[in-house]
Sequence to fold (411 residues):
Amino acid sequence: MKNNGHAITQPNGNSLTRLADEADKPGDRPEPAVLQEAYAQLLTETENRTRQLAMLNKASQALTSTLDLDAVLEQMIVEANALLQAGGASVLLPDGGGDHLKFVAVAVPAARALVGTRIPLKGSIAGWVMQHKQPALVQHAQNDPRFYAAIDRLTGDKTDSLLAMPLLVNDQAIGVVEIINKVGHPFHQTDVELLTMLVGSAAIAIENARLYDEVEQHAQQLQVLHELDRAITTSLRIADVYHAFSAHAARLLTYDYMSVCLIRGEEASVAFWVDRTENHFPEGLTFPLKNSMMSWVVARSQPIIRHDIAAGQRFVEDAPLLERDIRSVLAVPLRSKSRIVGMWCLGCQQVGAYDPPDLEIGQAMADLLAIAIENATLFELVQSGREQMRWLAQQAVSAHETERHRLSYEL
Fold:
């Protein structure tokens, strides 16, 4: 029998063979009790297979009934857990620069802490499955050198048996499904076949939902960028520009800390910041460009994502950021025409808060901000020039009046 291009195993061959052997025995006819037992076992296996196929069909329909990515992921783990009668199920998708996977959905409430947790591709069973695009059936996970033991320490549970399956779309792995601790007995080949059929439908559903989510997100980003452009060009007061920018930035990128730093010779000046960690920079803070994250960004004219600054302090800004429990950072150059005037920096207390797609939207926002800063700066210079001219004119009038009064007095 075939379903979605994958072979479905017929009822257990041992039961069929046993029944045939009993019927073909030479001499005396087989005992009715033996035949009845073999037939009952065959019937049970057939009923189980029918139930599993019905569950597969229902699961496939459920997975393709929505384009909500979170709903698809949740449905996937629920169906996988029920189909294989396992102790837990999870979905992992690529994260960061492609060298990690992130738990995006888990079936067991006690393991909800796993959502958002990143594991390395190298040094994990899920990573091996992702890289090799092959399933892994492991009966004794603790003894497997690929097993990533930190997950058990995080959940407080023990992973005994594990079945991991790649989510493939056009022969490209887009994620991994993991099933652990089958109830009652170890995983077997039938479980591999069942999960293979389920993830075939799930992979397509996840990819469709992800693409739809990307289109929706892109449309929202364009709308916010349009509103941001209008907001920061409505006023030419630099304070208004910064506050409007920070409000719109929060709609697109998460942050606990935000700063705008401008180049002032060999130093950087913190022109504006938002700090939600209840710590504040002193007014007019400056720091040397040498060995700074800002100098790195300016020299290369490109943004940088740092998933965990605590893992390796490199720049002078790291210490004050760590004092605020900031762990992940997105830093973007402020480019105006052919010049770089400074850096826009976002910080989050969550490790791995920023992904490569954030670079593009972050740079687009920074480019708008850089132009607005330059316009506001020019406006302030013009205003300052006007004020100076007005003051000089007043001084001239005052001097003229003084001289007139002096001459009048002398006459």
